[in-house]
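ASSEMBLY PREDICTION REQUEST
Request ID: AP-0331
Submitted by: J.K., bench scientist
Number of chains: two
Total residues: 794
Priority: normal
Notes: Please return the full assembly, not individual chains.
Input sequences:
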Amino acid sequence: MTDFAALKRRFHLPEGVIYLDGNSLGPMPVAVPEHMAHVLRNEWAEELIRGWNTAGWYTQPARVGDRIGRLLGASEGSVVMGDTLSVKVHQALAAALAMRPERKVILSDNGNFPSDLYIAQGIAGMLGRGHELRTPAPEDVEAAITDEVAVLMLTEVDYRTGRKHDMKRLTEKAHAHGVLTVWDLAHSAGALPVDLAAAGADFAVGCTYKFLNGGPGSPAFIYVAPQHQEQAAVALSGWMGHTAPFAFSPDYVPGEGIARMRVGTPPVLGLSALEPALDIWEEVDMQELRTRSIELGELFIREVEARCPELRLASPRDGTARGSQVSFRFEDGYAAMQALIDRGVIGDFRMPDIMRFGLTPLYIDEDDVRRAVDVIEDVMSNRLWDTPQYKARKAVT
Amino acid sequence: MTDFAALKRRFHLPEGVIYLDGNSLGPMPVAVPEHMAHVLRNEWAEELIRGWNTAGWYTQPARVGDRIGRLLGASEGSVVMGDTLSVKVHQALAAALAMRPERKVILSDNGNFPSDLYIAQGIAGMLGRGHELRTPAPEDVEAAITDEVAVLMLTEVDYRTGRKHDMKRLTEKAHAHGVLTVWDLAHSAGALPVDLAAAGADFAVGCTYKFLNGGPGSPAFIYVAPQHQEQAAVALSGWMGHTAPFAFSPDYVPGEGIARMRVGTPPVLGLSALEPALDIWEEVDMQELRTRSIELGELFIREVEARCPELRLASPRDGTARGSQVSFRFEDGYAAMQALIDRGVIGDFRMPDIMRFGLTPLYIDEDDVRRAVDVIEDVMSNRLWDTPQYKARKAVT
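STATUS: Completed
Returned structure:
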């Protein structure tokens, strides 16, 4: 049995804050500062260049990748760390398109995270071969999977509403039409059980600063299904993906397996901060986490709907059809979220009118949910959001 | 006057080590652990998602970029941080090629760092339009600049020998032939004075973990000359380069100026570790640093040549023609470097026979150079490298 009360004590949560934004940036595991002090003082400072061997920096992207892979149903040696999610989307999509040179359609949906769509637009522009990006509504994606499509590129869980695609069903239909899949797990990894192997996913990517709690700007990951690894074309052919980086040979030869998806020198400090966060996941049963997440979501919806009639549910009501967040629509949602944040309930706002709340069982419990709704009720029923400064303030995140 | 003795005290240098490998990974500034503890405990842990505004994370890539730009003769707003050097080479080269669509030749040299060549091969393969990568010997590059060439992509200082290209002269010839330039400053930034504006460079890229002392895998930088910023095509079109990332609009619109060269969520921890290192540079006069660097190089060459006849100078003898490193050739250089490292003199080895020594005046002085040569002499004259374990050991860096 996962001991959620014990897990909560492994995070630093500021006094007076109920943190419902772990879907954007997870809180700091308490073990991080000491671990980072060790990495700085004992690895960088003392080992210097030798740290690439003695401290295991060189193998860290694969080692950490395998730890994350275990949370995603990925076999050993099929996940590697590095760069940002946008760069990893670029790598996965470019490799997938190169495997379907005769097809010109990239199928996504209009609820996908914009950066994924931007990256697809950038690749299409760079290739200059008439690739078309199609973005039907999420519910129309399944019908749009045809033999014309080269790649189906979707984010499993919608960043605004939390609506969850059926990865297995869509991947099966894609394969029946000869379509390759790229799954973005930004709002899935650490949020719910994922089984990439069982779903038959071809490529997957994700970030680690949300539900995995790796810290601001922590490195991304990429998964390539074992059967594709030796065929995957490498568009970002940096030296760390070379079969023998330290031979310094003049021609690029892709490395074996997932190693070819490495690009440049890995971000050692960022990867190191992520490691104590992954230690916590060793204690978590993902099915129990999922059950708790759905329970917390149902409690939150019930309480908000009973006490705040101004807010309209934007997420699926069925807990199994959403990720680990619940969103409500409210026309002045931006101002309302500012008012909540000033009162210690931190969620976030997404255009045009979405108030997002992450419900993350590692450090959020029923008591937090009830206390958060007390504050939301106060802000809504007393129109505490209706002030010039809340309406004028501009956020960057 | 730059006070080099005072600067040396701002670095942690391990007991019993003379560190001549700052050209690969710089040592840790003593201010880093406390600063990182602050970033972790006061920014990430306490500010959580608010840190993007309150701790300035969102503007950090531009702010840190400007600090580095001041060391490189780049105007404000023309350098931005992020990703790795390989990714930044990709961005610069892709943008430059898109500005010369009718030309198909990428000109580099056979002494360029292999990752730059690999990235060029990757772009050529992805574009599939018959681009050709030419790599003459470094001394033949100037003659190879013709009207056929789209982009001249060079590393200013050779990673093996330290030989330095004349950036201004080559850029002038390039422009006379309508060729755009991409300069890799990996071994220049923090090693010698660079004046990108005076040289007329079009694009430049570099890393920060070498002479800038940013830590293992610290983020890279990219420079785009002001007159090109609004035309530069964006191949890696991630959301952070969008003109309004938080509008979440479906179509990519590149940001103003250098901002479009941002890609994904910035690596906050890596950028933060770099900041105390940049504080040190505020105290440095680059011309005085260059003078010291050449003096240390001359002393090192004189002492080694007088005492170690087995080693043959691989670097230019003229100090003004090389960067801030001195390399020697020795057939068993790999084993010899292992023997040196075990005796506290840390340099590194590059295939096939290059022993590299970084001479970095921020923390290396004449006394270090003389004591290092004492050890080199001992290793060479007593053949201390000639043991099975030194010959068998395999390094990854």
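REVIEWER COMMENTS: Chain B touches chain A through 95 residues (CB under 8 Å).
SIGN-OFF: pending second reviewer
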